[in-house]
Design brief:
Strand order of the largest sheet: 3-2-1-4-5-7-6
Catalytic activity: N-acetyl-L-glutamate 5-semialdehyde + phosphate + NADP(+) = N-acetyl-L-glutamyl 5-phosphate + NADPH + H(+)
EC number: 1.2.1.38
Family: Belongs to the NAGSA dehydrogenase family. Type 1 subfamily.
Structural class: alpha/beta
GO molecular function, one term: NAD binding
Function: Catalyzes the NADPH-dependent reduction of N-acetyl-5-glutamyl phosphate to yield N-acetyl-L-glutamate 5-semialdehyde.
Shape: globular
Oligomer: single chain
Number of domains: 2
Bound molecules: NADPH dihydro-nicotinamide-adenine-dinucleotide phosphate, N-acetyl-L-glutamyl 5-phosphate
Order of helices and strands: EHEHEEHEHHEHEHEHEHEEHEEEH
Distance between the termini: 36 Å
CATH topology of the largest domain: Dihydrodipicolinate Reductase, domain 2
Length: 346
């Protein structure tokens, strides 16, 4: 069997730990290197006791990795820290970058939203946006895949097919998203303290969140014209999960049933994206711990409008699961390898 060696850079964070959970059961992958910053020098079992007993390499700093036998690097670093590191990797290493550093095609947009000049513009040109169901053919050939953000995955999977098929209007798209706190990463910050997030919900980045332009980039490409969306994320007192409620205008002579059928047809042969039965409302607990994305389609009481509800696990389909799915496509493995866990319900 074809087997490859994987490095996880930033393995002591939430997405890194999730990659270990998924890859440890992958038939074609051996984890041969794992890095950390503050936690370098520690054993994975000491950072994450649930990942003990798995014969994993110890956590080292990035400059202590021997890249000579590594085939794929999963890069789980904070955005802004990834560009120079990826540029320094040997050419034979293929990369799935979970950060936002290579997602925006226009480096001026990157500067505007991330507040810094892009430091690897040549690499940016070759990066392929890793929304697997939409970009599969390009991902198969890519050396560098920019894994999508968690909110953009939940917004683009339902909206891209509908815009491509001109089933919905290009104006007035509203994306109201809620996320679990793991979306903010494991590094301590005031905003993710228990007292700040428990027993309440709040909107943040209102009108200014950096996932707005990432969503618009994908939707504009699908529609063939510039699209602007209203996108508001909310932080929920839960560990995992994203639920996006999306409000759209139906195109002329298109019904709610038409858009449900259109999404059902688009995703009929996709292992991880499913349109739920009419009347069912998908919940984050229906995808928890899995790589699935569930989509529900409803009529709005406002004539000519529809409401789409999309759920995913932000750490799986919104990050590490989609990263493994992309790696499977890049190396010609079974696309579902390592990803067959059913959701953990309730
Ligand atoms: N969490 C999520 O749901 C999602 C996250 N992402 C993106 O994935 C990336 C990783 O996220 P997540 O795992 O949540 O983040 P965490 O904060 O949980 O983990 C970050 C990791 O990077 C390491 N690290 C931090 N700073 C540096 C540095 N300067 N040099 C080297 N290593 C460093 C940390 O090491 P140490 O702990 O030892 O300091 C840790 O291993 C981010 O870019 C995030 O935006 C994307 C989609 C969803
Ligand atoms: C709850 C929470 O804080 N979520 C993060 C997004 C997580 C994600 O997808 O982030 P990247 O684009 O950084 O990869 C945020 O709003 O910044």
């Amino acid at each position: 069997m074809n087997t490859i060696n994987a490095a996880i850079v930033g393995a002591s964070g939430y997405t890194g730990a999730e990659l270990v959970r998924l890859l440890i059961n992958h038939p074609n992958v051996t984890i041969t290197a794992m890095t950390a910053d503050r936690k370098a020098g520690m054993r994975m079992a000491d950072v994450f006791p649930h990942l003990g007993g798995l014969n994993l390499p110890d956590l080292v700093t990035m400059d202590n990795v021997d890249w000579s036998n590594i085939d794929v690097c999963f890069c789980c670093l904070p955005h802004g820290t990834t560009q120079e590191f990826i540029a320094s990797l040997p050419q034979n290493v293929r990369i799935v970058d979970l950060s936002a550093d290579f997602r925006l095609k226009d480096i001026e947009e990157y500067r505007k939203w991330y507040g810094d000049k892009h430091r690897a513009p040549e690499l940016q040109k070759e990066a392929v946006y890793g929304l697997t169901e939409i970009k599969r053919d390009e991902i198969a050939k890519a050396r560098l895949v920019a894994n999508p953000g968690c909110y953009p995955t939940s917004a683009q999977l339902p909206l891209i097919p509908l815009l491509k098929e001109k089933k919905i209007g290009t104006q007035g798209i509203i994306i109201d998203s809620k996320s679990g706190v793991t979306g903010a990463g494991r590094a301590p910050k005031e905003g993710t303290l228990f007292c700040e997030v428990s027993d309440a919900i709040h909107a943040y980045g209102v009108g200014t969140h950096r996932h707005g332009p990432e969503i618009e980039q994908g939707l504009s490409e699908a529609a063939g014209e510039n699209i602007f969306v209203s996108f508001t994320p909310h932080l929920m007192p839960m560990n995992r999960g994203i639920l996006s409620t999306i409000y759209v205008t139906l195109a002329d002579n298109v019904s709610v049933n038409d858009i449900r059928t259109s999404l059902q047809n688009t995703y009929a042969n996709e292992p991880f994206v499913r349109v739920v039965e009419e009347g069912n409302s998908p919940a984050t607990r229906h995808v928890r711990g899995s790589n699935y994305c569930l989509i529900g389609v409803f009529a709005d009481r406002t004539p000519g409008r529809a409401i789409i509800v999309c759920v995913e696990d932000n750490v799986v389909k919104g990050a590490s699961g989609q990263a493994v799915q992309n790696m499977n496509v890049m190396f010609g493995f079974e696309e579902t390898a390592g990803l067959t866990q059913q959701p953990m319900f309730p």
